[in-house]
Amino acid sequence: MNKGYCVIMAGGIGSRFWPLSRSAKPKQFIDALGIGKTFIQMTYERFARFIPDENFLVVTGEAYKSLVLEQLPMLKEEQVLTEPCRRNTAPCIAYATFRIAKDDPEAVMIVTPSDHYIQQEDRFEEVMRHALAHARTHPDLVTVGIRPTYPATGYGYIQKEDTGELISPVMAFKEKPDLKTAVGFLNAGSFVWNSGMFVWSVAAIRHALESFVPDIARTFDGLAPYYHTDEEPARVNAAYETCQSISIDYAVMEKAKNSVVIDGDFGWSDIGTWGSLYEHLDKDSSLNARIGGDVLYFDTRNTLAKEELPGKLLVLAGLDDYVVADTKDVLLVCPKKEEAELKQLIETVLKKRSDIR
Amino acid sequence: MNKGYCVIMAGGIGSRFWPLSRSAKPKQFIDALGIGKTFIQMTYERFARFIPDENFLVVTGEAYKSLVLEQLPMLKEEQVLTEPCRRNTAPCIAYATFRIAKDDPEAVMIVTPSDHYIQQEDRFEEVMRHALAHARTHPDLVTVGIRPTYPATGYGYIQKEDTGELISPVMAFKEKPDLKTAVGFLNAGSFVWNSGMFVWSVAAIRHALESFVPDIARTFDGLAPYYHTDEEPARVNAAYETCQSISIDYAVMEKAKNSVVIDGDFGWSDIGTWGSLYEHLDKDSSLNARIGGDVLYFDTRNTLAKEELPGKLLVLAGLDDYVVADTKDVLLVCPKKEEAELKQLIETVLKKRSDIR
């Protein structure tokens, strides 16, 4: 029985956690939680419990290849696939799928983002092993769903059939809802968050790609002679230029009749904001959290302090519900609640100071 | 006619402007205003308009001698007098007085703190020249008074006779008042702030010291044979150990019958707090001020940002009336208004982290 492959998608260049993350070191490569591990390292470790090292693939931008190899030194260079440009998840998954297919067409595989947070790793392993077992015996496309704990408006939802089983057929994929809709989803009980993690056999996803995005499937299938050769990077780069930019959800999952969802109850967050990072940190009696640095709070509550420089002292007074993020060359002090405004603010900053990207 | 001496007292080790100032670099040695000059450099320049370089003396702690010589390279090493311990202003002034007396007993001299701010330097020069002229022809002890512009509770006051002249006899010295008393002083019109600057002849202050603090006078008069010799530092250090710690105001000025005050209308501040520093800086349309760094404000008002690291970007959002002071190893974010609390806060910090003093 093959143990399965794990494809880690690590192409993100987002401004989340700016100024901690930069375009030269996006979120997946930073130790946002201050635990000595970056998100991609935590992702690898979660899967390395049941996936052998040689069965990992990381897909990332060319600029990040050396970062990946530095942070995951157990991987060989040929396990890091690079994209010359961003084309969303469908081309990325097609590339990984057809490359694995060349080596092991009977394989099952997991596809996962590189920058999420999981609370209960034992339960996570159980669920993922269950999904892999399902994929070995069923031609289904398994999405990992997460039981919602609050009416999130920042995640997509999946409506599932109410089978009472761990794995259920998908009824519909739903875009990020407004708050009222999200409350309805939460109350209905049959909606789960779309985690962006997928489990399937190579044969199943290959068939789905060929059915719904035949151009993309043909492109990466056609490159099979070049995988594991010196020509692979150049051929892949040329292929990417011709690909449409499209998500796997939109390209495949929403259209496929064999979409199923597995119920993930292991505590999950994409930690997409300073606020959600704060939620996952230990707090003191005034509900202040800190990552790094030495912080002294005076008349300060609900505030997240992140210091990148070892030993630097932060003295914070009279703040309530702020994020204070200090790096070598940028300091951010901002109300934590204003997520949307913060995102705009950061865009404004980056336009003014492109050197700080 | 001798041009007069200028004695700059630079022994302060205060925590004002912490974390910008440190015990290794107190306020007088920092460029708090971000204009490329430290307070002691500005002090020197104000007096160098009418005092020759060779007539300056700086009295400071041993630890700061090299800082003085670095920041005032026009001074010779023998112009920097060092104190082995802090004994307030009377011993400091006595040392400088008797050292000048050895060289030039007919001299007139100015004594000045090293860390004050003057707005109108031309007017300042006029007033100080007038005071020097008075000291040449009168045996008076001239204190420089400042016309109050608000009911300050952080300064001592001098009640003067209402002569209508630039120089008036002193009726009384008043300690730092409470607010109600300060309002009374302001309304009375005959009270001025005590700037801590003095002008007198060597003969006049010598006589006063001998009258009111004879032990101190005798001590430093007795060292006359050693001034300008290799033995001076050791002798002075031993003398300091025996001195009481006492201010010149308490030791001499409040007791002397020949105390007069000159009316200083040149715009003065001791800039003793971040708030008073803020008052002296240019503001943008949201009344934000910055010193150094590159600051982007969003929904922020009345806030002072001080960045020590060149080129560092500060992004400040949702702040009203704060000080944000960032250095290499300390970041302070604190409501600007809470001056008293801030002082206590800093004391607390320094107890916890003596390495940051």
Features:
5-stranded mixed barrel, 357 residues, alpha/beta, homodimer, 4-stranded mixed sheet
Helix-strand layout with pairing:
Two copies of one chain form a homodimer.
Chain A: E1 5-10, H1 39-48, E2 56-61, H2 65-71, E3 80-83, H3 89-103, E4 108-113, E5 117-118, H4 121-137, E6 141-146, E7 157-160, E8 167-174, H5 179-188, E9 191-201, H6 202-212, H7 214-222, H8 232-242, H9 248-253, E10 259-264, E11 268-269, H10 274-279, E12 289-291, E13 294-298, E14 304-307, E15 313-317, E16 322-326, E17 330-335, H11 339-352
Helix pairs in contact in A: 3-6, 3-7, 6-7
Describe this structure in words.
- The structure is a homodimer of 357-residue chains.
- Helices cover 32% and strands 25% of the residues of chain A.
- Chain A is built from 11 helices and 17 strands.
- The first copy, chain A, has helices spanning 39-48, 65-71, 89-103, 121-137, 179-188, 202-212, 214-222, 232-242, 248-253, 274-279, 339-352; strands spanning 5-10, 56-61, 80-83, 108-113, 117-118, 141-146, 157-160, 167-174, 191-201, 259-264, 268-269, 289-291, 294-298, 304-307, 313-317, 322-326, 330-335.
- Chain A has a 5-stranded mixed barrel with strand order 6-9-7-8-10. In chain A, strands 12-14-16-17 form a 4-stranded mixed sheet.
- In chain A, a hairpin with a 6-residue loop joins strand 7 and strand 8 (167-174).
- The longest helix of chain A has 17 residues, at 121-137.
- Chain A binds chain B through residues 19, 294, 296, 298, 307, 309, 311-319, 322, 324, 326, 328-335, 338, 341-342, 345-346, 348-349, 352-353, 356, and chain B through 19, 294, 296, 298, 307, 309, 311-319, 322, 324, 326, 328-335, 338, 341-342, 345-346, 348-349, 352-353, 356.
